[in-house]
Write a structure and sequence with these properties.
- The protein is mainly α.
- Among the domains are: 51-116, no CATH class; 132-207 and 245-324, no CATH class.
- The protein contains 17 helices and four strands.
- Strand 2 (222-225) and strand 3 (228-231) form a beta hairpin.
- The protein is globular.
- It binds heme C (6 copies).
- One heme C (HEC) is lined by residues 63, 66, 70-71, 73-75, 140-142, 144, 167-169, 302.
């Protein structure tokens, strides 16, 4: 504590004693935070975070600067900050920067390391869920489209192209268990990692390790460096016990197989290209496009089912049954998966 802080405390104590009031809360004064609270020779938290961050795809990726609307809202620091603070996605940014420390933190404004995005951020379909400190990730790692609008246009006809789908990174939708194409009459199940984890994404992706390349500010679950591969299975151990890989109870094997089977059925149906695995240019019905949507959601999620095994399985199985004509007889009403945990935990 600096000398000035000490004098402040003494002064406050004198005044309070003189008034003989019971003090229930003491508010922080708004003097500039001492630089040495964060930058000092002893406190290496920032240095550690910097060194881990060097291994993050956020720092090293090849798509970290897409300065135009709507890309800038997730692919640049400036665009992201404007998007979450004003709701406006800027275009043609003059000096766009890649995601960096001040994208998520504003230490020189707030005097602390809290996150700019500390509240639930709505998904494209309007669903919100409080992932606590993990809310920091949700505004970018979400589908760019609302399935009900994108796959169910009033015309009932959907035009597919190779770029059609939820976009890369619908992990928040998947963890939350929403925004898949849900066929009437099929029961969609959930694996409740969203309730089991305290801070959503962070419980696994930022789980502390002694290695700089996985966990922490690398955000990596897996890091491949030539012949060496690191996987952060320690992130699962507290809850599930030790495991050798993420294929816990065969989850990734199961989901990869379901994706491969659906892909082959979609190729046969003429909706997906055999060579690229991406949607083919075609005009089709909402239910057929919905099968392609579920396939793309599972691929773009990239966790091999870990984020939400039962929901991802339900989406893939129902899509496969629809394409093969074996879906149970539809019930009278289609309902969107309700957000059972909204605003609570
Ligand atoms: C709440 C913690 C915190 C406090 C207090 C703080 N800083 Fe920082 N500072 C950071 C973080 C986090 C970074 C980002 C580190 C990086 O760029 O790798 C940073 C970076 C910097 C940099 C590097 C240049 C830059 O903009 O990236 C300078 C210089 C700096 N701080 C100066 C100061 C000074 C001077 C003070 C006191 C007036 C101060 N800081 C107080 C957290 C803090
Ligand atoms: C400002 C938007 C934004 C925020 C906030 C954000 N990300 Fe990302 N993230 C991206 C983008 C964009 C990429 C891809 C960069 C590339 O490929 O060049 C990415 C890549 C990643 C990757 C690597 C994917 C791969 O290709 O291996 C992981 C893991 C990840 N993010 C996790 C997180 C976690 C966890 C959080 C929250 C702590 C988070 N991200 C917050 C935009 C964001
Ligand atoms: C809602 C946020 C969001 C918007 C808007 C967005 N992206 Fe992304 N994008 C992401 C995230 C998050 C990732 C990383 C996902 C992952 O690695 O799983 C990503 C990844 C990418 C990738 C890397 C794919 C790969 O396989 O490595 C490209 C290319 C890309 N985006 C291009 C764009 C372009 C071009 C636009 C504008 C037309 C755009 N994005 C708009 C969030 C967004
Ligand atoms: C994508 C968002 C994001 C970016 C970018 C980011 N941080 Fe963080 N940071 C977080 C989150 C989320 C936490 C809270 C971690 C927790 O609660 O476990 C955090 C926590 C911290 C802490 C507290 C101690 C710790 O490690 O948990 C420090 C120090 C820190 N960040 C420094 C940095 C520095 C330095 C950079 C740039 C090199 C940076 N952060 C970039 C999201 C981010
Ligand atoms: C229960 C633990 C867990 C939670 C919670 C979790 N993830 Fe993951 N995530 C994983 C695992 C495991 C993988 C797959 C790693 C592999 O097999 O390569 C993964 C994969 C990813 C990938 C693909 C890139 C990569 O690292 O392989 C991204 C991006 C990602 N997750 C982002 C997120 C975001 C954003 C959240 C929060 C909305 C989140 N994850 C929540 C465990 C988790
Ligand atoms: C904070 C605790 C926690 C962490 C961390 C965690 N899990 Fe889980 N996981 C659970 C709970 C609780 C369930 C059961 C949820 C339910 O019943 O819906 C579960 C369910 C699962 C399931 C689904 C089983 C099924 O058939 O539905 C898989 C697979 C799984 N976890 C894998 C992982 C992996 C891999 C990791 C590490 C990357 C991990 N989990 C990290 C708590 C956790």
């Amino acid at each position: 504590m600096s000398r000035y802080h000490l004098w402040g405390c003494v002064a406050a104590a004198v005044v309070l004693t003189a008034c003989e009031r019971t003090v229930t809360t003491v508010e922080e004064t708004s003097q500039p935070a001492t630089c040495f609270n964060c930058h000092s020779d002893q406190n290496t938290a920032i240095v550690a975070a910097e060194q881990q961050y060097a291994f993050s795809v956020h720092a090293s990726g090849t798509h970290v600067s897409e300065p135009n609307d709507p890309c800038s809202g997730c692919h640049t620091s400036e665009g992201f900050i404007q998007r979450i603070e004003t709701g406006v996605i800027p275009t043609g940014l003059e000096n766009p920067t890649a995601i960096h420390c001040f994208t998520c933190h504003a230490p020189h404004t707030s005097g602390n390391l809290e996150r700019r995005l500390d509240h639930p951020f709505p998904l494209a379909n309007g669903v919100t869920f409080d992932h606590h400190d993990g809310n920091a990730c949700t505004a970018c790692h979400q589908a760019r489209r609302d399935v009900d609008v994108y796959v169910k246009p009033a015309s009932g006809r959907v035009t597919l192209t190779s770029r059609w789908g939820p976009h890369h990174g619908p992990q928040t939708d998947m963890l939350t268990g929403t925004n898949g194409y849900e066929y009437a009459g099929f029961t969609y199940e959930q694996t409740n990692h969203k309730l089991a984890t305290e801070d959503g994404c962070l419980d696994c992706h930022m789980k502390h390790t002694e290695n700089l390349r996985v966990g922490g500010h690398s955000f990596n679950m897996r890091f491949e460096d030539g012949a060496e591969e690191l996987i952060n299975v320690a992130a699962c151990a507290d809850c599930h016990g030790d495991m050798d890989d993420f294929d816990y109870q065969g989850v990734q094997t199961e989901i990869d197989t379901l994706v491969a089977n659906l892909r082959s059925d979609l190729v046969t149906a003429g909706l997906v290209s055999a060579s690229t695995g991406l949607p083919r240019a075609a005009v089709t019905s909402s239910d057929s496009a919905g099968a392609v949507w579920n396939y793309m959601m599972a691929i773009e999620d990239r966790s091999g089912g870990v984020h939400n095994r039962k929901y991802i399985r339900s989406l893939l199985v129902s899509a496969t049954q629809y394409i093969n004509g074996t879906l149970p007889t539809p019930a009278a009403v289609t309902t969107r998966q309700p957000d059972r945990g909204e605003g609570s935990k």
